[in-house]
Amino acid sequence: MASTPLGAVVRAPGRVNLIGEHIDYCGLPVLPMALGRSVRLAFHPRADRETRLVNRDPRFAPSAFAVNESIPPAPAGDWSNYARAAVGAVARRFPDLRGVDALVESDLPIAAGLSSSSALVVAMALAILHANGVSVASLELMELLGKGERYVGTAGGGMDQAIILGAQAGCASRIDFHPLRLTPTAVPADWQFIVAWSLVHAEKSGGARQAYNERTRQCEEARRLVATRLGQPEDITYPALLAAAPVEQLLEVARAGAGATLSGVLSRRFRHVVTEGTRVRQAEAAMAAGDLVAFGQLLDASHQSLRDDYEVSHPEVDRLVELAREAGAAGARLTGAGFGGSIVALCRAERAPEVMAALGERFYAPRGAAGDVGRHVFTADPSAGAEVLPA
Ligand code: NG1
C-alpha cells in the first residue's frame, strides 16, 4: 500500500454490556463499557471509489467493492458485510467519497457477544471519513451507524455503535435513546469485571439472527397489548409506559386476563424488558455508590430473567455463570445477545486471579480448552472509545 499523508490506523474497541440486555431496541437505557481488546484497521486513501479489504485472519477472505449508496451485499455471513454496511451508511450521508485500501486485525473473540462486528463497522466508517477529510459529530455518527448496521439483517438497537464511539476510559456509560445520550459513571478501582467465552459461537448471520429479530417483534407486540389494556396510546414507547405506571401494575396488566391478552411467552418477554429496565437504574446507582454486593445481585437477577423469561441463554453459558459465582464472583450473567456467547462476572480486584483460575480448571480444562484459557477469559478494563491514530 502506497503511503499518503492521510493514511492512519483506527482502533475500535469491543464492548461488554454490564446490564440492560435486549432492551436497547425497546428504547430503554443500557450500561455497557468498552474493552481493551479491539479491531485495528490500517488504511490508505485511494484516488478512486474502490475499497479493498484484507484481513490478517486467514479465515476471512479479501473483499472489494465500490463506495456508493447501495453496495451489493456479499453472501450472508461474509465478514465484509459489516464494512459494506458502514461504507454504505456513510456514503448515503456524504456523496462522492473515495475509497481506501485497508488491512484489518482484531484480538476480539468473534461471535462471542462482545461486538466484534460493530467494532468493524465503526472502524471502517472512521477510516472512510478520515480518508476523505470529513468530520461528523459523534452522536450523529452513532445514530447513522446504529441504523446502518441493520444492512446485515439484524434489527439491532444502537447500543454497540454508541459505546464503541463514545466510551470514556475508566467508566461505564448509561446510554439513553431518543434522543441518544451517554452518561459515564466511574467503575470503582477495586472492582474487576471478567469476561469469559462459553466456547459456543452465537452466529448472528445464522439462526441466532432469526431468534434475535423474533424477540424484537415480541417486545413490540407485548408493548401494544399492554398499552391497550392500560388505555394508553397504542404507539406509547417503553420509557413512557414505565413512566406512566409502576412496574408491578404493568406486570399485573401483562398477565393473562380478559380483553386483549398476552400469551404466556409475550408476558414473560414483557416482564424481562420492564424488570431489566429497572435493574439498569439500580445498577448505575450501585456503581456510583461502590456497592459491589448490590451490583452483583442485579447481575444474577438479570441472568435469571434472560434465561427463564427471555430464553436467550444456553446451558454452557448457564454453567459458566454458576462456576463464576461458586469461585467467588459477586454476580455473573450472560452478556450480549446470547444463544451462546460470553458471560460477564464481577468480583473484588484481588479475587480476579482466583475466579479466572477456577474457570480454567472447572470449565475449560474438562472441555479440552485449557491451553487457550488466556484467550477465552480476560479481565475487562473500561477503555476509551474508537480513535484514529497516526500510522
Ligand atoms: P451483540 O451482543 O453484539 O450481538 C446485539 C445488538 C445490540 C443489543 C444486544 C442485546 C447489534 C449490532 N447489536 O449485540 O444492539 O440489542 O444484542 O442486548 O445488533
In this entry the ligands are:
2-acetamido-2-deoxy-1-O-phosphono-alpha-D-galactopyranose
Major sheet strand order = 4-3-5-2-1-12
Oligomer state equals single chain
Number of strands: 12
| Helix content, binned percent | 40-55%
Largest sheet: 6 strands, mixed
Order of helices and strands: EEEEHEHHHEEEHHHHHHEEHHEE
Runs in which pLDDT lies below 50 for 5 or more consecutive residues are: 1-5
Radius of gyration: 21 Å
Task: Count the DSSP helices.
Answer: 12
Mean pLDDT: 95
| Share in β-strands | 15-25%
The end-to-end span amounts to: 12 Å
Structural class: alpha+beta
Task: List the topology elements.
Elements: E1 8-19, E2 31-45, E3 50-55, E4 63-66, H1 80-93, E5 100-106, H2 116-131, H3 138-148, H4 159-166, E6 171-176, E7 181-186, E8 191-197, H5 207-230, H6 238-244, H7 247-254, H8 264-289, H9 292-309, H10 315-326, E9 331-335, E10 342-348, H11 352-364, H12 373-376, E11 377-380, E12 387-390
Parallel strand pairs: 3-5
Antiparallel strand pairs: 1-2, 1-12, 2-5, 3-4, 6-7, 8-10, 8-11, 9-10
Bound molecules: 2-acetamido-2-deoxy-1-O-phosphono-alpha-D-galactopyranose (NG1).
